[in-house]
Amino acid sequence: MKQFIIAMAVLSMLSACKESQRREGTAMYKTITVEPTNRTLKSGYTATLRGRQFVEVRPQVSGIITEIKINEGDAVHKGQTLFIIDQVPYKAALETAVANVKSAEAKLATARLSAESKELFKEQVVSEFDLQTAKNELAEAEAALAQAKAQETNARNDLSYTEVKSPVDGVASMIPYRVGALVSSTISEPLVSVSDDQEVYAYFSMSENQILDLLQQYGSLQKAMSQMPDVELTLSNGKAYVQQGKIDAISGTVDESTGAISLRASFSNPDGLLRNGGSGTVLIPTVRKNCIVIPQTATYELQNRVFVYKVVEGKAKSAPVEVFKLNNGTEYIVESGLNSGDVVIAEGAGLVREGTIIESQTTQE
Question: Tell me, what DSSP letter sits at residue 45?
Answer without folding.
Answer: E
